[in-house]
Structures are given as C-alpha cells and as structure tokens.
Amino acid sequence: MRMFKIKMIFRNLIKYYRTISIDKKFLAVSYIQIFIPIILIGVLSFRISSDLIFKKYVGYTSDVIKTARLRIVDKINELNSITQDILYQTELYNVLDKSMKNVDYYDEVASLTNKFRKIILGHLDVQSIGVFTKEKKLCIVDNTSKKVGLDEIIPSQISFEKVYDIAAKGNGKPVWYVASLKKDKESKVVILVFRSINNPQTLKFEGILAVMINTELFDKTFSELVAEKSQAIAVVGDDIFISTKGEMNEKKILKFMSGVKNENGVVTYTSNEYIVNVLPIKQVNWYIVTSIPVKILFEDIDKLRMWLIILCFLSFVITSAMSLMLSMDFLKPINAIVEATKRIRKGEYKTIENLDRKDELGILIDNFNNMVIKINHLINSIYKEQITRKEAELKVLQTQLNPHFLFNILESINWLAQLNGVSQISDVVIALSKLLEVNLKEEKFLTLEEEIKYITSYVSILKINFGEENLKLEVDVDRKALKLRIPKLLIQPLVENSIFHGIRPKGFGKIFLGGYIWNDKLTIIVKDDGVGITPEKLKGIRQDLEEDNEVFLEQEGRSYTRIGLLNVVKRLKLIYGKDASFSIESLPQRGTTIKIEIFMDALSKAVEESLQEFSDEGEEEDV
C-alpha cells in the first residue's frame, strides 16, 4: 500500500511537470542544478570546517598543556632538588639536636638562616623556608621574600598535626600540598612542600622541612604559552585551583577531572557550552585544565554559515534573473514557431520574421521558413498545373487527337512506303510505332523483354544517322530474366548515353546489353567500346550520383549525361532502396561499363505495390 502511494505521488508529479510551461520547467531545473550543489557543498563545508577547527583546537591545546606540564614538572624537580640540598646541610641537624637538648644554638641558626636566604634570593619560586622539630615546635623560619611566610600559616591555619601527617605520607620524599586559606574574608591559595628530616647516620626522624612556593610561577608559565584571549587555563591540585587564567566554570571542571585520575594523556570533554581538555601531572597528583566556550570557538563557523546563507540568497536572485532572461530568449523563437504553425493550420502560409539567431533555434526557424516557402511554391505549382491540365484537356477536345488516330496515320505512311518500295522508311515507321506504343502505356513496369524490344527499335532509328555498319547492338539475356518486370525505360537512358557520349565522338562502335540472374539478383550490364571517361570526370560523376538530393538537377553547367544517370539512380533508390545498386567503370579510349543489380525479392515486391496503387486509384475514380 505504501509503495502504491509513492508511485501515485510520483505519477502525479510527472503529470504536473508535463502540464507546466517551458519557462517554469527551465526555472525549476535551474534551481535544482544550482541549489542542490550549493546546499551539499555548504553542509559539507560547514561540517568539515567544524571538524577541522575542533581538531586544530584540540591539537593546539594539547601541545600547550603538554609544554606547560613539562615546565611545571621541571620546576617541581628543581624545587625537590632544593629540598634535598637543604637536607645535606650539617647546620640543620645541629640546630635540631641542640633544640631538643635545650642548648644554645644561635650560631647554628644564624648560619642556617643565611643559607636559607641565599636559596630564597637565588630562586624566586621559593617564598619561605621553615624547619620544625619532632616535638612539633617551630625551630626556624625565613621569609626574606617579604610575603606571607610559614610562621603566619603554621600553626595558625594549618596545625602541626596536619603538617606531620602530610610529611609522613612521603616517607622521606617531598610531598606537595595545596591549601586554600582565608584571610580578611578572602581566599588565598598556598603551595607547600613538606619533607621528613631523618638523621643521615641513625635514620631516625628528627623534624620536618617545609618550603612555601610562589604561585606566580604558574601565571608566568601560562602567559607565555596561551595567546588566545578566549581560552582559559588552570592548574588544579587537591581540588583547588592553584592558578587560573581566564574565566572557567570550576564546578563543572572538577566533575570532569574526577574521571581522568588514571589517564596519562590529554582527555577532551565536549558539551553544548564548553570544550575542556584535562592533562594529569602524575608527580604531584595535579591537573592542567583548558576550557573554551563552544560559541567562541565556532565563531568563524557561524560567519561561514552566514556567508553560505547569503550566497544561497544571491544565487537564488542571480539564478532567477538569468533563468528568466534565458527562458525569454528561448521562448521568444519557440512562441514565434508555435504561432506560425497555428497560422498554417488556418491556411496562412507566412514566414517568421528574422530574429537574427545563429543557434539551433535560428536554424530551426530558417528551416521552417524554407518549408513555408516551398509549400507556397508547391501550392502555386499545383494550382498552375491544374490550370495547364485543364487547358490541355480543352485542346485535346478541340483536336480530338488520340493514340488510335496517331497509329492510323503511321500505318498509312507504312502502307505508302511499302507500296512505293521504300523499305527503309517502312522500318523506321514500324520502330517509331513500337516506341510510341511503349511510351503511351500507363504501366510503370515492363518486362525486360519489352524493354529490350524498345531499345532495339530505338537503336534501329539511330542507325539512320550513324549508318548500319557503324552502330551495333549485341544483346545477351537469360531466358528466365526476360519475364522479370523492371521500371519502364530504366535501361534506355543508359544506352542513349553510351551512343551519344561514347560512340558518336568515335564515329563507330558497339553496345552490349546483358541481363543475368545470379545469387538471387538480376544483373543488368550496359557496355560500350567508345571513347570512355577521364578519371577526373568519372570521379565527379560518381560524386554527383552519391548525392541524395535534387539540387543536382537544378545546378547549371551539368551535362546531360549526368542528368540521365542520376535519373536512373534516383529511380532505383526510390523504388528498391538498398536492395538495388548502381556502378560505373570507364577507361579512356577503352569504353564504359554500367552495372545494375537488384534483388529478386525486391523486383516482385515493387511490382505488387504498383499494382496495389493502381487498383486503389481505380477505386477512387469509380467512387
């Protein structure tokens, strides 16, 4: 049922398409050809551009955060090395030992403090250094950077218990800790590195080393790597945003980060609002995060979409204008032809005015005008022919001359010639009578035997001028071929050409006429031993015979020879078509040979069609 409905809809569309005008069809085809490619190209371009921009951003961001991770890891390793160098200082262990024994250690503290100051001044990333005893007492703190120091944080905001618990997790290795501290109703992020101090000889726990890191080092790292203002980047540790550049939805970022703890590479999250890239820093369990709004990232895509819409609109306007111009240009000559055909149906045979076109429509109009001119000519010719025919009928009625009257006169001349003993005149009269008898027959086809008799009579008359000995006719025809019917006077023009253009220039000669049945074909040969035809002239004759038009008969300067040959060739083509062939061969001073071949089936078929036409004409006259 569904397929039937689809077929019905399709048929209705085709039916509607056939009823609309050509200009609407032209517009519809133009729109389809223009808009389908534009829409397809636009959609594909938008999709491909979106994917390329997304991949480009992800690739660029991946490179940025990987570079940032390398720099941060280098800083971490550098700061870890600093803590290791501090543990190598003998003054550190002297201070801790005397502090536990309550012995004066002022000199050792001064010496160790100087070393701490050198480290802080030499490394701007170190903000403060402190040492705590195993009894959880502050032993020494240096804050040369003039910023918040460890003594202001521990133990006021971070207890000794918290510090010792964090350091114990490292088991002698550096432990990085991020804390968000509140001061004056504002939150401040601090980065601390804790490390247990174990006696190098006894390996017993003696205290805690604490180093406070300057968070500005991350801001400098981001400012050097991130160039796009719309992109936000941050370092997150212990669920606290250590350093952030740009605007970022921290709650959503923390949700994204919860799923990448076991990942090593860049992980990308895409939502309707943001595109987020997360890269873990395994050394300290931190993360580097980048975020950019989808709207900003695809701002260029939105511009592309707008340009595509504008392009489609402009294409619609331009295509409509061009299609209207072209349709009007095409429809004007077509409408002119339609109007002309309507006038012809009314009997007004008028040509179309010249539209000065050289294309196919111009050729069609020229041919149409030529057809109208020929129709007018034919109508006038038929009209004149009818008038001439009526005048001839009047003359015939006036003279009462008929074939019997003409034959009676020729018979009287023959009787007088025999009575007076002039046999030559008698022979000529008898031959002339036979010629007239054949010409006056209304039949279109004669037997080959009757055609040969006609040619024999024709040659006997010409012998009066040439002489009995100077003009010979030799006939060789199969008996079966004699009864075959061929078009009347088909061979006579060929014999006439042979006599007047082959033998007469020479003064004497012989004509050979042959008729044979071979390979289901009737072959007729007319051959003379006259002067022949030059190769150049023979080439021109063959070329004229191959032309399938009537212009040849209208051209001037053509010989009677070619007209006679063309008449025979055109009759063969009209009656038998491809079932008949005509060829001519000639050599100078050697003579000319003409051969006609007709299939036997075509001979009988043509005679039957002629008899049918004759019977139809008789029925029309009876009616």
Task: Give me some keywords for this one.
623 residues; alpha+beta; Beta-Lactamase; Heat Shock Protein 90; 3 domains; 5-stranded antiparallel β-sheet; 20 helices; 58% helix; 20% strand; transmembrane; Bact_2-comp_sensor_kinase; phosphoprotein; Sig_transdc_His_kin_internal
Describe the structure.
The protein is an alpha+beta fold and 623 residues long. It folds into three domains: 19-326, 2-Layer Sandwich (Beta-Lactamase); 349-398; 442-547 and 561-608, Heat Shock Protein 90. 58% of the residues lie in helices and 20% in strands. It is built from 20 helices and 17 strands. The strands form four sheets. Strands 2-1-5-4-3 form a five-stranded antiparallel sheet. The chain has a five-stranded antiparallel sheet with strand order 7-6-10-9-8, sandwiched between helices. Helix 12 (403-419) runs antiparallel to helix 13. The radius of gyration is 60 Å and the shape is rod-shaped. Residues 392-402, 404-409 and 549-560 have low confidence and may be disordered.
Give the beta-strand count.
Answer: 17
| Percentage of residues assigned to helices | 55-70%
* Euclidean distance between termini CA atoms: 59 Å
Instruction: Describe the largest sheet.
Output: 5 strands, antiparallel
> What is the strand arrangement across the widest sheet?
2-1-5-4-3
- Give the helix/strand class: alpha+beta
Residue stretches low in confidence (pLDDT < 50, at least 5 long) are 392-402, 404-409, 549-560
Q: Estimate the global geometry from the Cα principal axes.
A: rod-shaped
Annotated CATH homologous superfamily of the largest domain: PAS domain
| Number of discrete domains | 3
Number of helices, counting only DSSP H or I runs of 4 residues or more? 20
